[in-house]
User: Fold these one by one.
Assistant:
Number 1:
Amino acid sequence: MFPSCIPRLRPSAVLVLLALTGLSSCADGGNWKTLKPQANAARELVSLDGIWNFALPTSIDLEEDKAWTKNIPPSLQIPVPASYNDIFADQNIRDTSKRRNILRFDAVTHEARVFINDRDVAGHIGGYTPFEVDVTDIVAPGEQFRLTVAVNNILTSQTIPPGNVEVDETGKRRQLYNHDFFNYAGIARSVSFYSVGEVYVDDITVTTEVKDQGKGATINFSATTNKDPKSSRPRVTLFDEEGNEVASASTLQGSLELSSVHLWQPGVAYLYRLRVELLSAKGKDTLLDSYEVSVGVRSVEVRGNEFLINGSPVYLTGFGKHEDSPVRGKGYDPAYMIHDFQLMKWIGANSFRTSHYPYAEEVMDYADRHGIVVIDEVPAVGLNIGLSAGTSTDEPTLTFSEKTINNQTREVHAQTIRELIHRDKNHASVVLWSLTNEPASNEEGARAYFEPLVELARELDPTRPMTFANVMYATPEADRIMDLFDVMCLNRYYGWYVNTGDLASAEIGLEQELNEWQDKYGKPIIMSEYGADTLAGTHTVIAVPWSEEYQTQLLQMSHRVFDRIESVVGEHVWNFAGFQTASKSIYRVDGNKKGVFTRDRKPKAAAHALRTRWLEEGVRKGQGNVTAAA
Ligand code: GCB
């Protein structure tokens, strides 16, 4: 059904994606303070997912091409959502008058310019967070229009993640970057139209306080509206999972007290629903808007070297993941998403890190619903010029300098933090913000770069602890920023990049280093990465690198060490599954193979060994393990 008030795309929907363009003007005007669209009595929602026409630009200068002024022929077409890269076999509702129609993109990687007919209507920088544009005054209800999206996949020192473009001997531009996953680009997540009335809720923030040893709770809420709050009357209602009303208020900001509460617990999720309604200011209770958020009541705390959820120490088991699948690239795929969560349940994982960028909102909703703990990471990966595919170059590097990662980069990085915290602040599953992965925290300039970012994140969310994933070269002596954070996430490759093939030495080295971190800071340690590339089907009697036996034994060696270090409160194997990486690296054969599942999600021997430790043996007895995902 096509609702009356929303404009229509022409049947021969003409949408264009431009790869590797240099967008001359800065993309702005896209509102990133967007609530995930909902369909209810007051809001309409129409999906624009489907088959879009596709074209590469004829010029690097978008203005020269003005592709949005033309109809793009359907000779090349792409599915939305999906990364476009692996698709081709070619390298190269109601009263119509007073409603607002909003066009929302869940993610366009990395930069978008949006055109309606010949008009440039919005832009957004940042490939993994949503943005929207109010098109009410641009296209009339029922009118047909042409929607064109220009996508820029270029990474520079001033983008997050960073990269640089080199021109080779043949004059061809080549994108280089320091992170170890393929630079997938495109309209990676859903596109939708939604409509709201003249007055609507434009933001909701919910925080929870657990009281009386978990028997009671306070739910603090704060909603804002697009217009003067006096233009409507709020009604706030909290429902339990059975749909019973358990508390209510008639203010936009306030607290709801619960004398008996179902806590959101890892592995045993319980979600209340907080509904914020706007009613007409005078006269009858006419519904102007309605929006619901799921609320998991839980507390998160770091105390000494313990990580506590609802006052009890937890031990995290799981993975660093990627949004990556054959053909779709980084395109949102509900089948892969749910299959991945099922495999995590099968193996006994109770948590994961959104390495190395914010994942689709559907992933976060699923984690909330099923009690899976999430370390939520911004796309600040590769702020480390000397590092490539886990290996270091011998050249001296200067990551933080006026010419490389500079104040401008930091402002873009700050914006990724604002957008992630804004998007994910109400997710009970999110217990830690990760502000970067493997930066050159051992280099000069690191502290000056990161200190303001940590301050910003703490201002934006005073309720959750902060972390970053530390790289192996930034040892306890060399690292300059660890004291700014609450939890020490360590990426370590003993037995792989160091002590390759020598697990006995690796065990000594790993234990020594973890003891140093523990003694120096006394904070909880989460092993955010450890693992070994493994070619599925390679078996050896004597465990050698790349064999399934070696991967299993490296993990077992690491676990012996973790079990001896009191401050270790979590183990996230790198990686959940194989994933695609940049084509230029000789360290990678058709991608990174450290997954305990292959890219098409088949278990390697290590998966069975992990299942034995995480489910059958039970890790670290007495540590208050959280149960595996429900
Ligand atoms: C790391 C990075 C991760 C890489 C991994 C590896 O330290 O954080 O992005 O994929 O090493 O396999 O080298």
Number 2:
Amino acid sequence: MADVIQIKDIANYDGQEITLQGWLYNKTHKGKLLFLLMRDGTGLVQCVAFRPEIGDELFEAGKELTQESSLRITGTVRADDRAPGVPGGFEVGITAIEPIQVADEYPITPKEHGTEFLMDNRHLWIRSSMQWATLRIRATVIKAIRDFLDDHGYLNMDTPIITPTAGENTTSLFEVDYFEEPGYLAQTGQLYNEANIMAFGKVYAFGPTFRAEKSKTRRHLTEFWMVEPEMAFFSLEDLMDMEEQFISYIVQTVLEKNKAELEILERDTTSLERITPPFPRISYDEAVERLNKIREETDDEELKELLKIEWGDDFGSPHETELTKQFDKPVFVYHYPTAAKAFYMTPVEGRPEVCRSVDLLAPEGYGEITGGSERIPDVDLLMQRIEEYGVNADHYRWYVDLRRYGSVPHSGFGLGVERTVSWICGSGHLREAIPYPRMLKRMYP
Ligand code: 4AD
Ligand code: MG
């Protein structure tokens, strides 16, 4: 057996004999030629057997292999521009085939399948090229997030997953029985982050986040991954400056590292190339004006109805979609109505009906990918807001303490990994941006 190599490295082995180990993605034969499209997790390459060269027995064994059978192939690498594959440009002239397991009839064939069927077979579906490409981009996004933050002085701090109280809102909590006391799966690590910055300055939490969302939209999961940077002495403007650098870095890193994957997804990359600072910034007031203007100018009665909005309402996805169509970069919307947002956000001075909050809306209709704010630094106001919120103030004693022992102005935000991945990949639904999605009525596999 020749050296085992990975398909991603195949260009380094032009003219050499190598061994690949993996799975059969597809198979065709034509007379004395057998084409085995093989994948090994890192890429996809066409391997070609010529009957007179490898002999009848091996040729027949190769022909018997079914889709997704596991196997080893030994052969000689040769450059060929027309060869299909990822990274492409090379094929393998087979000298030996070693079947490992001949797969049962594989349920996912190249024909069309319904989404429910594919979701039931998610454990197999992740082998398909578009899913494979999406999940590889997800890994790049996660690494880019960590690299950027680690390199810019943010300390990674893990925050608890089992918590005594709501962090974001009381309507989407998953309750767990914590030794006969109610506990809740974390909706955010933010409140703990706020304690952490008083010890470390700039931190980030990065972990799974849980929301018992009863809504069945393409933008909501019940379990998703969120990265939450939190910074002492940061204003809302500082926050926007940082976010646009951060998001641009993530997108540019994917463009650099995942060309092949973006190609598999047929993603129009020109819209991603534009993602560089600065991003446009508009207030909530201006956003509402823009929406009303769209309503006035459109002849589309359905759209008019969908975009109905009263000052004070939170945006739904049609609002976000129409707004973002007006920009070719992500757009910051700041100073939302206080009543529409979480309890911890600082009211705007002289105008307490709006707060120092900012959401970032992705272009091409992808909607909110980050949500953040300046946090209330004042003890009395924070206690009052907790009271109004209608939760057990006792659970927030430690959080209020932070305003007693060296309180400082501070800000932070959360970025949803799946929303970001789905936007970058141009995919229609968040369920494809995470290996095993958890949604309303979906916990399998
Ligand atoms: O806007 P959210 O709810 O903000 C917070 O949780 C803050 N405590 C974050 C902070 O300031 N540290 O959530 C932040 C982001 C959203 O912009 C969205 O990208 C994502 O998390 N997100 C979801 N992603 C998938 N499914 C859901 N159900 C999501 N809910 C929020
Ligand atoms: Mg939000």
Number 3:
Amino acid sequence: MTATPIALDLSAPRRGPRGKPPRHFVDLTPEQRVTAVTELGEKAFRAKQLATHYFQHLTDDPEAMTDLPKATRDLLAADLFPQLLTPVRALQADGGTTVKTLWRLFDGVKVESVLMRYRNRSTLCVSSEVGCGMACPFCATGQLGLTRNLSTAEIVEQVRRAARSLAAGELPGGPTRLSNVVFMGMGEPLANYKAVMETVRTLIAPTPDGLGMSARNITVSTVGLVPAMEKLTKEQIPVTLALSLHAPDDELRSELVPINTRWSVDEALDAAHHYFEVTGRRVSIEYAMMRDINDQAWRADLLGTKLNARGRGWVHCNPIPLNPTPGSKWTASDPQVEQEFVARLRAHGIPTTIRDTRGSDIDGACGQLAAEED
Ligand code: SAH
């Protein structure tokens, strides 16, 4: 692995009202963008030009906006494209095809995102909150507690910057597009519902009003906040829903995913199944495999039984080898035990694929994001 130090931008960060990030183009509706541009004394059609630069050309740099007069682009960019994310550090793994970036936000707090390039797709794992309030004991972010939610623009900026990096050919393999976004970085996306849904809408809006991504290639992962899952179901946006189950029984799950004491295994599975019924989108069940904790054959059978009790073909299982986090008493399951677990699920007819652990050597894999300062 290699660390690439990045020059720090020491200019004083701008602030928005009441501890919010400064106003950013992405956080405005198309109408508000027109209003903002005209209030700055410029013509309304400049709003569309800015959108084209930002969402299509993936740039917020006034120097690149050569179809606008110099004074105009400097004025508009300075006002509407404040730098929300400042790169602090980038770590690479897997021959440069995995890149974890640590970002500093306007108020000095930090989050991470992880870009993974595969042969036929590129996936960005984004953070939706600074820290997380869900307190899952095996997850590094869970140990931090929640500092604050991210704004839509702070999340979209993670995506825009990754897409630009890929388009510019900064990862090995030549220029490419960002195809997938997973809300599996820091935070519980459904606890920051409004900003996350606005982000999803922005990602799937056709260019130049959004990034033109496919909803199917966006995965929202949740601990199982049932009312928010029901709300998501009603949105009728065909994103992929992933449920972090980690245990098929309430006794163990309440220990691993404390919110289970509020919404049980059965309630979370019912909400996940309802999501499938309404959207037709197959749900993913995430299951971090922890040695001698949740990896017993009987738990695989119980999981298979509970999933099949709700129907067939609605769900896909994603066991994740536990990525170790500092101070955690848990370790990954024995590979043979893991294989047996997978075989049992498959014997129940549940499609099952083990999640890769890309980036684990740079603490960039699932559950390892802690955004520590070095
Ligand atoms: N809050 C959301 C998104 C977080 S991370 C959620 O919980 O779903 C995405 C996945 O990584 C979740 O399934 C989470 O449980 C899992 N995870 C957390 N810590 C992990 C670890 N140490 N090893 C492997 N997976 C982990």
